[in-house]
Amino acid sequence: MRHPRRQVLAGCLSSLIVMTILSAAVGMAAPNLISRTLTKHIATVLFFGFGLWSLWDAYNEDGESEELAEVEAELDADIKADGGKPKSNNKGDDDSKKKNRPFMTQFFSPIFLKAFSITFFGEWGDKSQLATIGLAAAENPLGVVLGGILGQALCQIAAVFGGKSLATQISERFIALSGGLLFIVFGIQSLLSTANS
Known about the structure:
Shape: globular
Number of strands: 0
């Protein structure tokens, strides 16, 4: 809401692309460390577990998310700290600030790096990352990477460009129910493919 949408989107998408590729690589390596059959069984259990977890979250949903409330409070505090004033666009100030920035910010904007790091560490160990590992272990890793990147790109674009208005139209309960059912469908598909092997 406060920063250029393109930079935020680029940071978030870059982070999710890196995370998807790393997760798929771990998933590809998993069958080499443990048997493919055991890997498929673990993936099946994870899918059913995530599905039930998401359905449980949807069932126990009580209104607005605590995380959303925390983010909104943080944004309000930042706006108040800035005094609600827009930043100056003085070219001399910008050049001197660029020279004093840390190494990585010489090449990437601070907003891009902040969006990248917040998304990367926020998604680390998340259900989507573990599901990507499980899918890559059980299915074609290239398809998992391409599908994961496409799905996450669509979600990020919707979040960045229409997040606030979209959040008023779709409840978190609906998202959790949909995700839970999708994980269970993946679990059934994984179970059936394991049984046929």
